[in-house]
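Record type: monomer structure entry
Structure origin: computed from sequence
Chain ID: A
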Amino acid sequence: MSNTNPMTRSMTRCGAVALLGLCAATASWADGNRRAGDVLSWALPLGAAGYSLYDGDREGTLQFGKAFAVTLAGTEVLKRTTHVERPDHSDDESFPSGHASRAFSAATFVHRRYGFEAALPMYAAATYVGWTRVHADQHRWRDVAGSAVLSAAASWWLVDPRQDRRVSVLPLVGPRSVGVEVAASW
């Protein structure tokens, strides 16, 4: 580490302190799956934005901010207009899940920007967040699926793949068609 510049060492130390803080917070708050889902629903977007900033990808960070804002706004509009009752009957704002929207927004951003391989662990964590909401009787799986679709739509609309990628595989879905677009550069 002595061969790295002072800025890199500082960023590494800041990242380590933030990670330790997150682990401590998760351990103290995670008194069950529901709490773990609550924490992860915010940790995933913070992690995605933090990685993008750490990587020096300012454009990607801005694109994530836009996609995240559109996802949250869309989630709130749908909650207030669809009036789907929660499984526990506590209110009529079940569709879509806000927790799952936040989590899947991070996963779909990483997928779109950096590739599927980088996003796979985030998809697993986002799915876990959705499971915690279903398990807590706050949502049904269709609420979680709606969140994933909304997040993916925002990311595919507002996030561009990183330019240093050589091959891009993009799903295409139309009203009466489904396809795959493959783009390669060399």
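Annotation 1: The first helix runs from residue 6 to 29.
Annotation 2: The longest strand covers residues 167-173.
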